[in-house]
Amino acid sequence: MNAEINVTPMIDVMLVLLIIFMIVTPVLESGFQAQMPAGLNVEQRPEGDDEVTLGLDVNGGYFLDGKPFPKEQLEARLTEIYAAREEDKILFFKADAGLKYSVVQEAVEMARRAGARVLVAITDRKGGGGLMGEEK
């Protein structure tokens, strides 16, 4: 009779569990995650008077050219703006990094339907600077 514990089956079970967790864990974390990127702005450029800027604040409120704007009227207003333009159909887009992706996507789709052909995302500077070179 041998009074020692046979650890071979226990090691086999532990290795199988380790392999299962190694496979399952990345699958659980593979959901789509979006965050507005921080980037290096090549040139600091103030916003022009003729540029259309759409902003989304932390609560999902809409701002058109820096002024609060009701979401229900936004698409009609953007359609008016872009209908009057022949060539320049650019929309500068600012959104809070903490917003859900669906909120940002809804605003982008609304701008596309209204006639915006080019969307430019305004980001924070890497290293903690503010939007378009402004200090926070």
Would you write up a description of this structure?
This protein has a domain at 52-121: Nucleotidyltransferase, domain 5 (2-Layer Sandwich), CATH 3.30.420. The protein has 136 residues and is α/β, with parallel strands linked by helices. A hairpin with a 2-residue loop joins strand 2 and strand 3 (67-68). Helix 2 packs parallel to helix 3. The chain has a 5-stranded mixed β-sheet with strand order 3-2-1-4-5, with helices on one face. The chain starts with 7 loop residues before the first helix and ends in a 15-residue tail after the last strand. It is rod-shaped, with a radius of gyration of 25 Å. The chain has 3 helices and 5 strands. Helices cover 35% and strands 15% of the residues. Mean pLDDT is 76; it is low at 31-37 and 128-136.
